[in-house]
Design goal:
Layout (H helix, E strand, L loop, with lengths): L2 E5 L4 H13 L4 E4 L10 H6 L7 E4 L2 E4 L1 H12 L10 H31 L5 H20 L10 H15 L8 H13 L3 H4 L4 H15 L1
Parallel strand pairs: 1-2
Antiparallel strand pairs: 1-3, 3-4
This protein binds glutathione.
Protein name: Glutathione S-transferase
GO biological process, one term: glutathione metabolic process
InterPro entries: Glutathione-S-Trfase_C-like (IPR010987), Glutathione-S-Trfase_C_sf (IPR036282), Glutathione_S-Trfase (IPR040079), Glutathione_S-Trfase_N (IPR004045), Thioredoxin-like_sf (IPR036249)
Amino acid sequence: MTIDLYYSPSGSSCRIVLLAAKSLDVELNLIPVDIMNPESFTPEFIKLNPQHCVPTLNDSGFVIWESKAIITYLQNQYGKNDDLYPKDPKKRATVDQRLFFDTDLYARFHEVYTPKTFAGSPLDPEALANANKALDFLDEFLVKSEYVAGDSLTLADLSLVVQISNLELLGHDMSPYKYINRWYAKVKAIAPGYKEANEDNLVYVKQLIGHFAQADE
Ligand SMILES: N[C@@H](CCC(=O)N[C@@H](CS)C(=O)NCC(=O)O)C(=O)O
């Protein structure tokens, strides 16, 4: 039985799935997709996901995309315990809320850095202030608890740590966020397979940024 993951290592949503799979001890058969080059998509991939986005998971014919839907599916289907995604409805709701929050944080920073990265546009101060508000909220969550959804590591930490690593790579000023910085160092140190699933793949984000920076010159 193989679980195929169509992915691009530069995509933060793909690295979230890689990182969660490590913690869940689920082996994925990785199928790279050159997302910047739709002509290269295989007919199999095109047929599998009408949205043609990655990450897309194919678990023996069950096909699902959207990183958060994928990681909660992997947990529900293959999790050996419920540590990362508690069964208690209230605790689980908090993890879900933080996962949705992560999607909001991603969208806000997308507004800030995508025009700069892909078109060399200057940073929009309004978009930047709006994005930094999400970091203020995250910092506030972490004043009250050691991890983003309580006192232990959950899927929400694995998702958010990937977004914060992207911001670090982009040189975003993280100095005002004392609690995020403390949590970030801890999650990087304890999340199983962090280096292989996320850190080592950041080189592809660097390459992508470099490629567009050159194209602008
Ligand atoms: N909300 C999605 C975002 C996925 C996403 O943005 N994927 C990018 C690559 S990292 C992509 O496939 N872009 C091409 C497209 O959406 O057509 C998730 O969390 O999985």
